[in-house]
Write a structure and sequence with these properties.
Length: 300
């Protein structure tokens, strides 16, 4: 099954049946008692990003068709566009889930997003120290309390937004210094897929050939294509295209580049080819995508 066939879940969906506060369409924090699990009983594609924190007990999560066990002190980071399923949890499980739309992190340095994205795709589970866990949970508690208490304070949305950015940087910080935990029984095929994704995310701007990546891995194109089809239901070409689209969206959302400049930045032969490629994969032109993002800003 290809990724695009999975049902889509957005941040707004997670808030559809509860009080979401001032930024309900863009950000959501839920605790154990209200974790939005009804949206992920079956594998679903999550449009935004998220992270889950385990405070007690354990929880089994399938992320991009790989199973992870979330235990006390662990944080699991969900990159945008991931396939998520909540498999089961222990009776004593306690935790937080924080979900965010990409437009919330537009003030973060663009160049820092793609490498971070690459790493969390490959290594999403991290063990936190007690001090790190306390800091992250404290941020979650503060944001949840403040976002549900809109007393018409001037710059209320800006206050919440920057509190969320603090949380994002806290998570980024502990991720960089935390101990990465790989899933149990990490197979040879999963190692190939991990290395392939890492190569693609660092080379997609200039290299779109399957043979290039096969040569870098010391394998044949047929071999790596078989691995990707088996593990994630996608061809190598589709994974490359996914990375190119993600890179294009990042530039269209967060940079001041024109469409022509984005096309050149991503090494397309001309803007018309880039526009056709982008529309084929997203259903809209780059200009339409940028206009949609602008119309959904949280600053108005």
């Amino acid at each position: 099954m290809r990724y695009k066939n999975y049902p889509l879940v957005t941040v707004a969906d997670l808030n559809s049946s509860k009080e979401g506060g001032a930024l309900s369409a863009f950000f959501n924090i839920t605790s154990t008692k209200d974790s939005g699990e009804n949206h992920f009983e079956q594998p679903s594609k999550f449009e935004g990003g998220a992270f889950g924190i385990c405070l007690a007990g354990s929880k089994i999560v399938s992320l991009n068709l790989t199973t992870f066990k979330l235990e006390k002190g662990n944080i699991l980071i969900v990159s945008p566009g991931s396939i998520v399923r909540f498999v089961n949890r222990s009776e004593d499980f306690e935790g937080y889930m924080a979900a965010f739309s990409l437009c919330l992190i537009k003030d973060i340095d663009i160049d820092s997003i793609i490498p971070f994205y690459s790493r969390i795709v490959d290594e999403p589970l991290v063990k936190l120290t007690d001090e790190q866990l306390e800091r992250v949970v404290h941020c979650c508690d503060q944001i949840k309390a403040r976002s549900l208490n809109n007393d018409n304070t001037p710059y209320f949305k800006e206050i919440i937004k920057h509190m969320i950015l603090v949380l994002f940087y806290e998570v980024s910080s502990v991720y960089e210094t935390g101990k990465v935990t790989l899933p149990h029984n990490f197979s040879k095929g999963e190692a190939i897929l991990k290395n392939l994704r890492n190569l693609i995310i660092h080379n997609f701007r200039t290299q779109r050939s399957v043979k290039f990546y096969a040569d870098q891995l010391g394998l044949t194109p047929k071999h790596i294509s078989a691995v990707t089809k088996e593990l994630c239901g996608m061809t190598v070409g589709e994974i490359i295209d996914e990375a190119v689209i993600f890179g294009a969206k990042i530039q269209l959302m967060y940079s001041e580049m024109s469409v022509n400049e984005v096309s050149e930045h991503l090494n397309f032969p001309n803007p018309s080819f880039f526009t056709r490629f982008f529309k084929h994969h997203t259903g809209m032109t780059p200009k339409e995508f940028r206009k949609t993002i602008s119309s959904n800003t949280i600053n108005d």
